[in-house]
């Protein structure tokens, strides 16, 4: 069998280095590395890896990258690699199309086998989070039946997610353009597109919806 091809997306270079070395020791091939969601999507489309290992908190939103990669590369397995043990993040990622969810305190020596298990059709989720999933499933809380961004994720591109996240930070059009390396006119076009897709009146309403979903 050919070695597993893995894309790593994380905005922390030392983490990417550690993960790459662990995977290479496990005789896997790191076919691409990305530092943000938009780059992860672009490189995934170019390299078509067997597995994408994505951080949630990277710029552009890791959940947005999951939506887009899953839609365009349905045979690629997506595994989240994060510090978050919040079940809300877990549910959002699974709803978006991730098949497994690993927390960064995992022994990196076990990471290659975990990814191989995922490729073989098994799920890799920490036992503590599995227990919370079962507890929520048997509970009556309505939050279990939705996820923070379930109504936003499938509609927005990764670039629109980046713009929306920046709006949520209170940045102006000019500031967003500088951050993303875009023309101000392009930023305004992205804002108009995301406002239309979300079915809201204006950029402030889009930000309000983002915050509402994050707090749900």
Outline the fold blueprint.
Blueprint lengths: L4 E5 L3 H13 L3 E6 L2 H11 L3 E4 L7 H11 L4 E6 L4 H10 L3 E4 L7 H9 L7 H12 L19 H11 L4 H8 L3 H15 L4 H13 L1
Parallel strand pairs: 1-2, 1-3, 3-4, 4-5
Task: Provide structural commentary.
The chain has two domains: 134 residues, Response regulator (Rossmann fold, 3-Layer(aba) Sandwich), CATH 3.40.50; 63 residues, Orthogonal Bundle (Arc Repressor Mutant, subunit A). Helix content is 52%, strand content 12%. A five-stranded parallel β-sheet has the order 2-1-3-4-5, sandwiched between helices. The radius of gyration is 18 Å and the shape is globular. It contains ten helices and five strands. The chain has 216 residues and is α/β, with parallel strands linked by helices. β1, α1 and β2 form a beta-alpha-beta unit.
Order of helices and strands: EHEHEHEHEHHHHHH
CATH top-level class of the largest domain: Alpha Beta
Helix-and-strand structural type: alpha/beta
The CATH homologous superfamily of the largest domain is named Response regulator
Average predicted local confidence, pLDDT: 84
Radius of gyration: 18 Å
Binned, the helix content reads 40-55%
């Amino acid at each position: 069998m050919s070695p597993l091809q893995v894309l790593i997306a994380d905005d922390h270079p030392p983490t990417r280095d550690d993960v790459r070395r662990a995977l290479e020791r496990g005789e896997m091939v790191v076919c691409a590395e990305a530092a943000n969601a938009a780059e992860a999507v672009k490189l995934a489309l170019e390299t078509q890896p067997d597995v994408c290992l994505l951080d949630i908190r990277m710029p552009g939103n890791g959940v947005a990258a999951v939506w887009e990669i899953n839609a365009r590369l349905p045979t690629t397995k997506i595994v989240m690699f994060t510090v978050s043990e919040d079940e809300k993040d877990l549910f959002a990622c699974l709803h978006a199309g991730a098949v497994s969810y690993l927390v960064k305190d995992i022994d990196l020596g076990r990471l290659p086998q975990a990814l191989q298990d995922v490729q073989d059709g098994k799920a890799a989720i920490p036992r503590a989070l599995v227990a919370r999933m079962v507890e929520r499933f048997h509970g009556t809380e309505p939050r279990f039946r939705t996820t923070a961004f379930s109504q936003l994720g499938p509609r927005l591109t990764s670039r629109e997610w980046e713009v929306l996240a920046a709006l949520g930070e209170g940045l102006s059009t000019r500031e967003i353009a500088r951050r993303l390396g875009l023309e101000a006119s392009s930023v305004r076009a992205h804002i108009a597109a995301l406002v239309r897709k979300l079915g809201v009146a204006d950029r402030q309403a889009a930000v309000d919806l983002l915050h509402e979903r994050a707090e749900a």
